[in-house]
Design brief:
The chain is mainly alpha-helical. The protein has one domain. About 60% of the residues lie in helices and about 10% in strands. The protein contains three helices and two strands. Strands 1-2 form a two-stranded antiparallel ribbon. A hairpin with a 2-residue loop joins strand 1 and strand 2. Helix 2 crosses helix 3. Keywords: Cell membrane, Lipoprotein, Membrane, Palmitate, Signal, Transmembrane, Transmembrane helix. It is a multi-pass membrane protein.
């Protein structure tokens, strides 16, 4: 009888694990090794940010920017998150 409150608390303890699934994290094989998909999204974000910097330098938009580092990091992050959402999202 003393363990009844403890038995009622067990589902509450495991409730945060309800979103976990057995399938594992999304990954893809490259040369026999599995890489997490967030790494692909990060690389795509970096490539797009560098490409936009080259484009902005060619069109003189870069001279108008005040916070260049913040701008390019934000553009890369937005691109990586959009790719994640479109490729691996719900």
């Amino acid at each position: 009888m003393r363990y009844r409150p403890l038995l009622r608390a067990i589902p509450v303890v495991f409730l945060p694990l309800a979103g976990c699934k057995v399938a594992g994290a999304p990954s893809f094989p490259i040369a026999g090794a599995y890489f997490p998909s967030w790494m692909l999204c990060g690389v795509i974000g970096i490539v797009v940010a560098v490409g936009l910097r080259v484009l902005f330098l060619a069109t003189d938009i870069d001279a108008l920017l005040r916070l260049r580092l913040f701008t390019y990091v934000s553009l890369g992050t937005i691109t990586a998150l959009l790719f994640w959402l479109l490729a691996f999202g719900p």
